[in-house]
Amino acid sequence: MAEAVRVKNIGLRGVTVADTKVSFIDGENGILIYRGYRIEELAQNSSYTETAYLLLNGDLPNRQRLEEFTAQLVEARKVPEYLHESLKKWPRDAHPMDVLQASVPILAMADPELRDETRPAAARQAVRLISRIPAVVAAWHRIRRGLEPLPPDERLSHAANFLWQMNGTKPDEEVAHDLDVCLILHADHTFNASTFACREVVSTRAHMYASVTAGIGALSGSLHGGANAQVMEMLRGLEREKDVPGWVKKHLDGGRKIMGMGHAVYKTMDPRAKFLKEMGLRIGQKTGQEKLTQLSRDIEEAAVREFEKRGLSTIKPNVDFFSAPVYSMMGIPGDLMTPVFAISRIAGWCAHIIEEEFAEAQERPALYRPQAEYVGNYCGLMGCEYHSPEKRA
Ligand SMILES: CC(C)(COP(=O)(O)OP(=O)(O)OC[C@H]1O[C@@H](n2cnc3c(N)ncnc32)[C@H](O)[C@@H]1OP(=O)(O)O)[C@@H](O)C(=O)NCCC(=O)NCCS
Question: How remote is the CA of residue 14 from the centroid of ligand 1, in Å?
Fold first, then answer.
């Protein structure tokens, strides 16, 4: 039995609940590492497919393994036809995150190895999920606009195929590469809320799809992955604002948050944000959308200055602050930004689920079961006396 430790920490901040070999964050210095590799190194040199392999398998693949893994991903891209038929019956104004979350159990039903609890079967399930999550998002975006879903194109890379299945046009190579880099940057982030949700669910011996469904639910929240869509709304709302510093001050004075700012772990600039900021400036210049990147810089400068004045100098832009304008300039609509986060994070979720299920970083699997301090109605250990409804106040 694990030793009982009496700590109360609302929100589990700073409490270590497991060992992991998947990724590491140095929040003070703004460093994020996947399986030993800095994300800057991966973003500059790797591909999402290779990074997904790294996260799932612990090291980068040699040429032959990379080719095999790529072929497995490409082969798994097709979703069952009955999922498309089902999606066509759903309300067209349904949020893509709800649609994605509801689709994962349908993908589970189509998995021939759902009840196979071996490590190799889990790795194959991960491959199917990594390939099919983007296919679902793309199919839904077409169906909700009255268009037919498109078959995958096996010649295209992971990111390019997603853009093709969503838009039905051959994606620009540079856009596809930039999206691939975004997917690398979002692929994992240690024990963030959605990853913890996945690990918590698999710790009960639920299957991988059930765990991923929980992760998608957690990611949808505006304090987590949903923040990018909120950042986009803020940017759209401020397009005509003449006094950005004044808006920032008023917003904070009203007790509201600036979305895309602050982080539970980083006390300096999020390393992913740094990368995305530069990418945004480049795309803005190339596509003549500098107004958007300028607005985002104006908000950043005003907010950082205002936070410093208020003694909150550790609040800096996070990944969502800069991914929102980048995705927008790539033509990705606001409500697809969080699903695109899921398209990337699925690799990290699966890596963590496998690590948790097969105790790959600690001695044996453990069921997460924290405690809560009861602060509710209490009449002693005999319990309160039951009265019929007529006798109740
Ligand atoms: C991410 C986040 C939840 C982490 O915050 P945290 O570590 O829990 O820190 P807290 O929320 O306790 O913040 C500490 C203080 O800074 C303030 N703060 C933190 N982020 C803020 C923001 N973006 N805007 C305004 N105030 C903020 C809090 O209100 C709090 O003030 P208080 O002590 O007066 O209540 C928080 O920064 C946030 O809500 N950011 C906006 C949402 C977002 O971008 N999420 C994506 C994260 S990748």
Answer: 16
Q: What is the mean pLDDT of each successive set of 10 residues along the chain, which is 393 residues long?
A: 70 90 96 98 98 98 98 97 97 98 97 96 98 98 98 97 96 97 98 98 98 98 97 97 96 97 93 95 96 97 97 95 97 98 98 97 92 95 96 91
Distance 235 CA to ligand 1 centre (A): 19
What type of residue is 42? L
Sequence-distant (≥ 6) Cβ neighbours of residue 258 within 8 angstroms: 234, 248, 251, 252, 299, 303
Residues 6+ apart with CB under 8 A from 40: 271, 275
317 in contact with ligand 1, CB cutoff 6 A: no
Which residue's C-alpha comes closest to atom 12 of ligand 1? Answer: 264
Helix (H, G, I), strand (E, B) or coil at 58: coil
Cross-strand pairs, 386: none
pTM of the predicted model, to two decimals?
A: 0.95
